[in-house]
Amino acid sequence: MESGRSVSTSSQVRLLFFVSFLLVFFVSAVPALCEEKQEIPSVQQGSKKLTLSDCVFLALQNNVSIQTAYLDRISQRMELRVAEDKFVPQPSLSFSTRATSTYNTDGTRTRASTQDGLFATTLNLPTGGSVIFSWDNPATKADIGQDYGYSSGWSVQFIQPLLKNAGVDVATQSIRQARVAEEQYILDLKDTLATTITTTITDYRAYVSALRSYDIQAKGLETARRTLETNQALIDAGRMAQTEILQAENDVANRELSVITARNDVDSARLTLLQILNLDKNTNFLPVEEGEQFVPPPSLEEAIAVALKNRSDYIKSVQNMELAKLDLAVNKRNLLWDLSLVTSVGRTGTGDTYGRALADQQVGKSDWDVSLQLNIPLRDLQSESSYVTAKVTLEKAGINLKKLVSDIEIDVQNKIRNIDVNYRSYVLAKKGRELSERKLEIEREKLRLGRSTNFQLVSFQNDVLDQQTMELQALITYLNSLTDLDQSLGVTLDRWSISVKREDENVKLSEDRKKEVNEKLTAK
Q1: Which of 210, 243, 281, 339 counts the most CB atoms within 10 A of its CB?
Q2: Residue 45: which domain range?
Q3: pTM of this prediction?
Q4: Are both 277 and 411 inside the same structural domain?
Q5: How far apart are CA 491 and CA 485, in angstroms?
Q6: Residues 316 and 208 in one domain
């Protein structure tokens, strides 16, 4: 029995010695920790402030993708101009001079020369035919020592296909394709603008979220430090065991790490936003937070109708369907035989001077010619292949259009549902944050009365930070879901009063607004 008591007493002595060592260590370490605590880094306090509208304006003014898209419009407009020039007369002037030397059988040599001036013009007709006018004025010297002989003659030729390559659809196909292409180029430009606006909005909110998260973590660190100081005071007063401070110290260390991470997130979000705004990377500004008012989305039927009216992918799909129908009609006609009506009329005058050649031309009689030309291909797999391809393309366009309508309906329905769910999530997150803050206040009072533990208090503090972060993310998610619905409906540009016209060289922005935003950027 004595031996057992001796062993037990020895263990207790060792345990007491170990606890005493820990107490001495913590008492000496905590003041050093408090003295060496790092200051919370600043996040541009006093910097210039830009609203969401300001940033969207800057993106429309400076974004590189938008600038290059408008540069592309220069060549795109030229493509349409070339296509629409098809039924405009195409005149040309040509001049030539020629010298020849011919060795004759009698041993002599003939040296001739010819100078020629030719004016010609071609007019394509909407019926698929063409009119060709030419006026030729050659001057010819048969040999050295002889005088020049002059002639002047004009001719008009009319060619009209009657089967293959005939008709308005065939003749105007290239113009209609170019006009549709121009409309789709404008739709692409609108998409670029809308995507830039949407990206700017989400990046702006990401910057807001990063700053708010940093603020939450910084306040959490301050709270953790105050808790540590309070605990140390309680320990010094003998009202708390020394070991109780471990949880508070650990919480301070974790919060310092969270602040560092949040500060890095702020810089990353700021640079990402500056990148789309195409501003200098050293530009500092603070965003102005948006409101949290609930915006009721339209009904599903109204939203789908708006989407089918404004979405570029649907408009393009309908246009491609019409082009496929036209292409099929053209290729079907081109399976016919090639029958053409060819007529021509002309008059030529000659003389020893150019003036006499012109006079002879005016008093002379016109020559004319009318003919029908028929070409029957005995094997034309190329035309048959084009027809089959056009038929398949039309069927595929119809299938793709139906599928796209279904996809749009599902997409819009998801976006509307997300708005409702995200707003409810935000309301619940806000309520959860308020309740967690109330719980923390109660727990602090309980700890003051000695009815709680430091571990419980720190846990409740962490719960408040988590709930604040959840509320912030829920609000950003809800606001972004509204922005996503605008893009899904194709109304982003309308929402921001941005118009796009064919002749525009850049985004039309108010000069007064431009001056206002630039003054904000340059303000100190």
Answers
A1: 210
A2: 33-77+175-322+397-522
A3: 0.82
A4: yes
A5: 9
A6: yes
Q: How many residues does the chain have?
A: 524
Pair 85, 52: CB distance under 8 Å: no
Q: Beta strand 285-287 with 48-50: parallel, antiparallel or unpaired?
A: parallel
pLDDT tens digit string along 229-256?
A: 877 887 887 777 787 788 778 888 988 9
What's the rounded Cα separation, in Å, for the pair 383 and 331? 7
The identity of residue 488, as a single letter, is S
Residue 15 lies inside a defined structural domain of this protein: no
**What single string gives the DSSP state of each residue in 39-77?**
PPPP--TT-EEE-HHHHHHHHHHH-HHHHHHHHHHHHHH
248-279 pLDDT tens trace: 788 889 889 989 999 999 999 999 999 999 99
Select from 162, 136, 207, 175 the least CA-distant residue to 333.
Answer: 162
Same domain for 239 and 309?
yes
Long-range contacts of 138-143 (CB under 8 A, 24+ apart): 138/114, 139/114, 139/115, 139/354, 140/112, 140/113, 140/114, 141/112, 141/113, 141/114, 142/110, 142/112, 143/110, 143/111, 143/112
